[in-house]
DNA sequence: CAGGCACTAAACATCA
DNA sequence: ATGATGTTTAGTGCCT
């Protein structure tokens, strides 16, 4: 019958405040942008398209990268328009660059001359595979993205670990790819030289062009791999992609880790690098990549994760556990040897066994200019990574400390954001105010702690120690409970997060959701356990609470039925409670309005991005911007409902409901009810029709809030 | 600070 | 007797 999975009676201090918030729901949003039902941010989208275009051209020059990186940097604290400007500039530059390059290439095809120093001109590398250095940087997640992760989200150490591992693995892969491409490039040049001497240009050029194409494709694949990695991170709620940069993962921009000096180093290496033989085995290092890419398919639709599978809070999402992870921990002890391949940067030589590898190492990678240069590069890379790691570690430490301190404070439980494919999400979210705002005198520039404690699946278990929360925000906004539950359904089902609603609200919801608008106690229990993972524990406690609430509140009416007693909702009674509550809470309203004023322009696009990336709360949390989307509508509805209530008892605040849709005769509770009860048609069981009131949530307007309703 | 509210815990009653 | 259901009371904490 009932699922009494965890009947520990000890419930004090249980997971009441695992108000984490990363709804990993809403995975229906497929790609980075496709998932959105309608493009909220056209300007940004254009930028994204441009970026993608640029990406496909594989022609990002350092200059463009600079611009785009600038763009990204600005994205954190500026609106997107500036960024699109920068992007346009970059795009123009790119076009010029492309033209120049085309001219160059044409010239070269006509006269393959001056090949001795094809790279002398950094800007137009002759016949160089148009792969920017930055593109090849071993950077899967840019430092800023990492920063985002660390700044905005509460990650468990394990997740950080996994993240880092994935990052490292991908970096390794990328590094190998870099080497591979570098090598290919050099070989091409060498071949070209030879061919020039041999005097057979046209054919070989064609070949070269083909190879170039192949390289580009491979690079593209690499990019896609990156992208998927990032996507998977997003899906886990580990990474936030901001709206102005939906194509962010497509931007293999060197940032932080690879400054220009590093590029130069690479060039040094490249120029110092003499031609090597054989490229045939190089693909060994690519195998993983290509298979990975092909398995997860570049098309974004293929990235869509089965909502059911992914809504599981634990999010077993397709984080393609890249086999490359094993690169590091390959049984063969030498870090430069793995999978039968020499892992010296840029080498990839196949070595049958370890001894032959050692032999190869000593012969091919002896102390010479090239090795030295490569070493320097590697040092730089490592240094940068270490720096970054140290920085992020520090940040993480600070976060942990901060959160630890804060989490012990009796804060209110944050409410998961309704981000699931909400059409007006950006609007509502941007207008929203965090429910915690009234209690948190945080300035917009400082992260709001409770927000970072959102119902993230990551931390739900770790949050269980947090003390009980007495306040249930949404109790005051009981209308949107419908949409909230509907929208966060999967989240609540899978994450052991206490829903931010009072028992009364939940019970009412359960009853209203039933076809008959009536439930037996047991059915109510079942609804609780079915809808909320949280209520699969401590059954004795919450069941008692349910019964207590059913008995206590006049709005719950017991009806003798053929099959026993069922409980119904006296909507009027229920609504009666609301005005008095909301009226006493003007500060909340004010806060909402004020927060609205500053967060709207800033965050509209951001919210959209969050929505499509299944990342509630986090992004704006770091900006101190409230993003509890449905709170605004909640309050609004609350107010509407309250006002309507004062005007007439007939109207429900939710348009989705027909107040007069009484189902069955309700027989009133045994106890005499208030005299007020006599005032209405009233012991009607108001029935909510089952249409989800999403529309309602979205249709509200920005009307002035009436604080004096009573 | 008082009062209201929500939550938790527990005692008790009723009924199948 | 037992468990489910329902009622009531008490204590506590948060918020206005």
TrEMBL record:
<keyword id="KW-0805">Transcription regulation</keyword>
<dbReference type="InterPro" id="IPR032354">
    <property type="entry name" value="FOXP-CC"/>
</dbReference>
<feature type="compositionally biased region" description="Low complexity">
    <location>
        <begin position="438"/>
        <end position="452"/>
    </location>
</feature>
<feature type="region of interest" description="Disordered">
    <location>
        <begin position="1"/>
        <end position="43"/>
    </location>
</feature>
<dbReference type="InterPro" id="IPR036388">
    <property type="entry name" value="WH-like_DNA-bd_sf"/>
</dbReference>
<dbReference type="InterPro" id="IPR001766">
    <property type="entry name" value="Fork_head_dom"/>
</dbReference>
<feature type="region of interest" description="Disordered">
    <location>
        <begin position="106"/>
        <end position="125"/>
    </location>
</feature>
<keyword id="KW-0804">Transcription</keyword>
<dbReference type="InterPro" id="IPR050998">
    <property type="entry name" value="FOXP"/>
</dbReference>
<dbReference type="InterPro" id="IPR047412">
    <property type="entry name" value="FH_FOXP1_P2"/>
</dbReference>
<keyword id="KW-0863">Zinc-finger</keyword>
<dbReference type="GO" id="GO:0005634">
    <property type="term" value="C:nucleus"/>
</dbReference>
<feature type="compositionally biased region" description="Basic and acidic residues">
    <location>
        <begin position="320"/>
        <end position="332"/>
    </location>
</feature>
<feature type="domain" description="Fork-head">
    <location>
        <begin position="498"/>
        <end position="571"/>
    </location>
</feature>
<dbReference type="GO" id="GO:0008270">
    <property type="term" value="F:zinc ion binding"/>
</dbReference>
<dbReference type="Pfam" id="PF00250">
    <property type="entry name" value="Forkhead"/>
</dbReference>
<keyword id="KW-0479">Metal-binding</keyword>
<feature type="DNA-binding region" description="Fork-head">
    <location>
        <begin position="498"/>
        <end position="571"/>
    </location>
</feature>
<dbReference type="GO" id="GO:0048513">
    <property type="term" value="P:animal organ development"/>
</dbReference>
<keyword id="KW-0678">Repressor</keyword>
<dbReference type="InterPro" id="IPR030456">
    <property type="entry name" value="TF_fork_head_CS_2"/>
</dbReference>
<dbReference type="Pfam" id="PF16159">
    <property type="entry name" value="FOXP-CC"/>
</dbReference>
<feature type="compositionally biased region" description="Polar residues">
    <location>
        <begin position="303"/>
        <end position="317"/>
    </location>
</feature>
<dbReference type="GO" id="GO:0000978">
    <property type="term" value="F:RNA polymerase II cis-regulatory region sequence-specific DNA binding"/>
</dbReference>
<feature type="region of interest" description="Disordered">
    <location>
        <begin position="424"/>
        <end position="456"/>
    </location>
</feature>
<feature type="region of interest" description="Disordered">
    <location>
        <begin position="644"/>
        <end position="710"/>
    </location>
</feature>
<feature type="compositionally biased region" description="Polar residues">
    <location>
        <begin position="424"/>
        <end position="437"/>
    </location>
</feature>
<keyword id="KW-0862">Zinc</keyword>
<feature type="compositionally biased region" description="Polar residues">
    <location>
        <begin position="645"/>
        <end position="656"/>
    </location>
</feature>
<dbReference type="GO" id="GO:0001227">
    <property type="term" value="F:DNA-binding transcription repressor activity, RNA polymerase II-specific"/>
</dbReference>
<protein>
    <submittedName>
        <fullName>Forkhead box protein P1 isoform X3</fullName>
    </submittedName>
</protein>
<dbReference type="InterPro" id="IPR036390">
    <property type="entry name" value="WH_DNA-bd_sf"/>
</dbReference>
<feature type="region of interest" description="Disordered">
    <location>
        <begin position="303"/>
        <end position="333"/>
    </location>
</feature>
<feature type="compositionally biased region" description="Acidic residues">
    <location>
        <begin position="700"/>
        <end position="710"/>
    </location>
</feature>
<keyword id="KW-0539">Nucleus</keyword>
<feature type="compositionally biased region" description="Polar residues">
    <location>
        <begin position="1"/>
        <end position="24"/>
    </location>
</feature>
<keyword id="KW-0238">DNA-binding</keyword>
């Amino acid at each position: 019958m009932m699922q009494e999975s965890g009947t520990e009676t000890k419930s004090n201090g249980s997971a009441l405040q695992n108000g984490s918030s990363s709804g990993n729901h809403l995975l229906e949003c497929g790609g980075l942008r496709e998932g959105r039902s309608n493009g909220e941010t056209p300007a940004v989208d254009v930028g994204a398209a441009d970026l993608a275009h640029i990406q496909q051209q594989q022609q990002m020059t350092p200059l463009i990268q600079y611009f785009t990186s600038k763009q990204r940097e600005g994205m954190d604290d500026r609106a997107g328009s500036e960024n699109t400007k920068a992007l346009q500039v970059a795009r123009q530059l790119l076009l010029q660059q492309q033209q120049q390059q085309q001219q160059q290439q044409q010239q070269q095809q006509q006269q393959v001359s001056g090949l001795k120093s094809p790279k002398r001109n950094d800007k137009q590398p002759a016949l160089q595979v148009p792969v920017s250095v930055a593109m090849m940087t071993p950077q899967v997640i840019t430092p800023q993205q990492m920063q985002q992760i660390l700044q905005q989200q509460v990650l468990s150490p394990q997740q950080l670990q996994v993240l880092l591992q994935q990052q490292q693995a991908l970096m390794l892969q990328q590094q190998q790819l870099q080497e591979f491409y570098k090598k290919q490039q050099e070989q091409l040049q060498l071949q070209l030289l030879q061919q020039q001497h041999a005097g057979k240009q046209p054919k070989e050029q064609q070949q070269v062009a083909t190879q170039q194409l192949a390289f580009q494709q491979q690079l593209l694949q690499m990019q896609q791999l990156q992208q998927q990695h990032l996507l998977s991170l997003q899906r886990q709620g580990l990474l936030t992609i901001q709206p102005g940069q939906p194509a962010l993962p497509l931007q293999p921009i060197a940032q932080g880790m690879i400054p220009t000096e590093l590029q130069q180093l690479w060039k040094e290496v490249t120029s110092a690098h003499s031609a090597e033989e054989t490229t045939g085995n190089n693909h060994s290092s690519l195998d993983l990549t290509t298979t990975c890419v092909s398995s997860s398919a570049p098309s974004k639709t293929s990235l869509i994760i089965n909502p059911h599978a992914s809504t599981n809070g634990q999010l077993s999402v397709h984080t393609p556990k890249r086999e490359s992870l094993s690169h590091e921990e390959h049984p063969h002890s030498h870090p430069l040897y793995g999978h039968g391949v020499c892992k010296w940067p840029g080498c990839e030589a196949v070595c049958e066994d370890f001894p032959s590898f050692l032999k190869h190492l000593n012969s091919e990678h002896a102390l010479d200019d090239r090795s030295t240069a490569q070493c320097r590069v590697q040092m730089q890379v490592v240094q940068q990574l270490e720096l970054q790691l140290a920085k992020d570690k520090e940040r993480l430490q600070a976060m942990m400390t901060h959160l630890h301190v804060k989490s012990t404070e009796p804060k209110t439980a944050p409410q998961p954001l309704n981000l699931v494919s909400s059409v007006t999400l950006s609007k509502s979210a941007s207008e929203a105010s965090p429910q915690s705002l009234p209690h948190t005198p945080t300035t917009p520039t400082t992260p709001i702690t409770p927000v970072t404690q959102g119902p993230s699946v990551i931390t739900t278990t770790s949050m269980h120690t947090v003390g009980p929360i007495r306040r249930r925000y949404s109790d005051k906004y009981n209308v949107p409970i419908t949409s909230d539950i509907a929208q966060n359904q999967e989240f609540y089902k899978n994450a052991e997060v206490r829903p931010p609603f009072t028992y009364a609200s939940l019970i009412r919801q359960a009853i209203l959701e039933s076809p008959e608008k009536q439930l037996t106690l047991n059915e109510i229990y079942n609804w609780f356990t079915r809808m909320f993972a949280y209520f699969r524990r401590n059954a004795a406690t919450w069941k008692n609470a349910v019964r207590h609430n059913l008995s206590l509140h006049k709005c719950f009416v017991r009806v003798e039925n053929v099959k026993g007693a069922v409980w119904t909702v006296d909507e009027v009674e229920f609504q009666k409670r609301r005005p008095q509550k909301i009226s006493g809470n003007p500060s909340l309203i004010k806060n909402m309005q004020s927060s609205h004023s500053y967060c709207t322009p800033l965050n509209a696009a951001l919210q959209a991005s969050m929505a499509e990336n299944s990342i509630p709360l986090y992004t704006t949390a770091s900006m101190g911007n409230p993003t509890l989307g449905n709170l605004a509508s909640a309050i609004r509805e609350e107010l509407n409902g309250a006002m309507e209530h004062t005007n007439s008892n007939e109207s429900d605040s939710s348009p989705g409901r027909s107040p007069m849709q009484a189902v069955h005769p309700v027989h009133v509770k045994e106890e005499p009810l208030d005299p007020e009860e006599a005032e209405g048609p009233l012991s009607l069981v108001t029935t909510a029709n089952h249409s989800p009131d999403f529309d309602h949530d979205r249709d509200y307007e920005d009307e002035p809030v009436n604080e004096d309703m009573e």
